[in-house]
Amino acid sequence: MFASSSRSHRIQPRRRLAAFAAAAVIRIAAAGSALAAALAPPASLAAEVTVRPDLYSRTNGLKRLFPPRSLAGTEGVKAADSDAYTSLEAFPANPDGGTNPAVLRIEGAIEKGDAEKVKRALEDWTYYPLVVSFDSPGGVFAEAFRIAEALRYDIEGQDPRIAGLIVLAGDECLSACAVAFAASVDRVHTDTGDNRFIQRGGRLGFHMPYIPDGADTSGAGARDMLGLGYDVAAEMVGLLQDSANPPELFLRMLRHRTATSFYVLESDLEAWRMGFTPVTAAGEVSEIGPAGLDTDAIGMLCNLGLAAGPIRMSGAEDEFTNFQPILSEGASSADLPLLTQLMSAGDRSFDITGGWFSCQVRVDDASRVGIGIWRGNAGCEGASDKEPGAICAAPPTAVDTVSNFFLAEAYSCRDNAILPETFTEDTRPKIKRDVYLRDAPGRNGQVVTTLSAGSEITVTGCRVTADDQGVWYAVSRAGTRGWVSARFVGGHAETFADRGERFAIDPPEDEAAQQ
Q1: Hey, which of 8, 59, 215, 466 has its CA 20 to 30 A from 338?
Q2: Where are the beta strands (DSSP E) in 303-424?
Q3: What is the pTM for the complete model shown?
Q4: Tell me: the pLDDT tens digits for 229-272?
Q5: How would you list the strands of the sheet with 458-464, edge to edge?
Q6: d(CA 336, CA 326)
Q7: CATH of domain 31-68+96-283
Q8: C-alpha 246 chain-centroid distance
C-alpha cells in the first residue's frame, strides 16, 4: 500500500463533491444569517488541523472487531482465492516506505477554510504514512464535503499517503464531521476494504441539516434553506449508490432533524452493518478456536454474517435463508455434532446449506476458525436431502476470520450485557452438554461445580474474553453463580435468520441515537 513517498494523482479525479460544495456555499449565503449561524460556528471554535506524531502510537496495532467489508462484496460472489483468511489487523504494522508516521488531527468545529488547512497539511511530506483523526461537533456541511474531497484525492491515488481515518476513543465526530468522515472513502480501489475506523469509546453521529428555532422561514430564504437540505440528501444518496455504505444509513439519518438528535454509531455491530470498521486494542481481540462449537453455533455465525453483512438480499432470500440445522422430532441441540467431531475424519472445511445462500466454516492448522458466505445453494451436492442447515465436508474457499467480538454478537453479548429478547419464556436457556461452572470468565477460572446437560439456568450477564472460547455467560442455578462458555448454552430465541425483522428501521423501542 505504501510503495513510495512520491506524490501521485488519483486514478480518476472526481469533481462532483467540489461542485456540490461550491453550490451549497452559495445556498448558505443566500439563505441569510440565521441559517449561516446554525451551520457555521464562531471563528474561535474553528477546527484546528495539526500533524501529531505523538498520537500515532494510539493507532498502531489496533485490530478489527469484525471481518473486513469489501465494497466488491455486496453481490455475494464466491471468492476466488480458496486459501485466504482475512486479517483482523486495522493498519499494517510496518507499511512499505513508511518512515515517519503521524496522525493528521482535525479537531474542533468545521467552518469555511478548513479544507484548505487539510490540503496544506497533505502537501507537506515530512510525515508518512498518515492516519486522519476526527474530533468535531460538526459545522458547515459544504466545507465537510470539501474536506472529504481533499482526503479522497489522496486516498484514491496510486500511492496513497493516508492509511485510514479514525474516531479515537473519547472523541466524537458529529453532524457535518460525520458526513466528512463517511464521504472520505476509497471508491476506486474497491478490493482494499473500508478504511474508516471507530475505536471503542469513540462516537460517530449523523443528522440532517436543520433550520434553527427563530429563523426567518419566509420567501427566498426558506426556499434556499430547503434547497440546501435537498442538495445534502442528493449527495448522500450518490455516496450510498457506490456501496460505501448501505442505503439504511441515510434512512436512519433522515429521522434526525434537530440540533440535538443524532443517529449515533459506536464501535459495535451496528457500525459494522452501516459499512464502517470498529476497532480496539490488539490485546482485546482474539481469533476463536473450534472447541465446543456445534453446528447450531456455526449456523448462528453464518446467519449473523449474512444478516448483518454487506450482501444485498431480496425479501424472499432474507425470509427463506437459514443456516441453522433443523432438529428432528424429540431431538435437542445437545444432539448436534461438534465441529471437532466433524474434523475427526481429517476434514477441515465444511459447507452448510442455507436455501438461497451457502456458508463454509474452516479451521486452519493454527485452529483459527473462519466463515465464508456466497450466493447459491451449491453446498453438499451429494446430500440426498439438502435441508437448510445440512453440513458436509467440502473443498476450502476463502473465509473471514471469526473474532471473539463477532462470536459475542452471535451470542447476543455486547458491553458485558445480554441483548434484549435473547431468551424468552418460550426459549429458556439450558446447558447443552456437561460443563464446568467457573468462578471467573475464562479457562483460568476455578471450577465451582459441574452443570449437567439439560439443566435450566438463568443468564445474568456476559464477558468477551481473549481466549479460544471468546464469550462467557454469567449464570446462576439453584443459588449457585458462576461462568460458563457461551458455547455450552442453548435456547436462544435470536438466531439472526431474518435481517428485515432483526434490523428493522423502526423496531418497537428504537430510540437509540437521541442525544
Answers
A1: 466
A2: 349-353, 357-363, 369-375, 391-393, 400-401, 413-414, 417-418
A3: 0.87
A4: 777 777 677 667 767 888 899 899 989 988 899 999 999 999 99
A5: 447-451, 435-438, 480-485, 471-477, 458-464
A6: 10
A7: 3.90.226.10
A8: 12
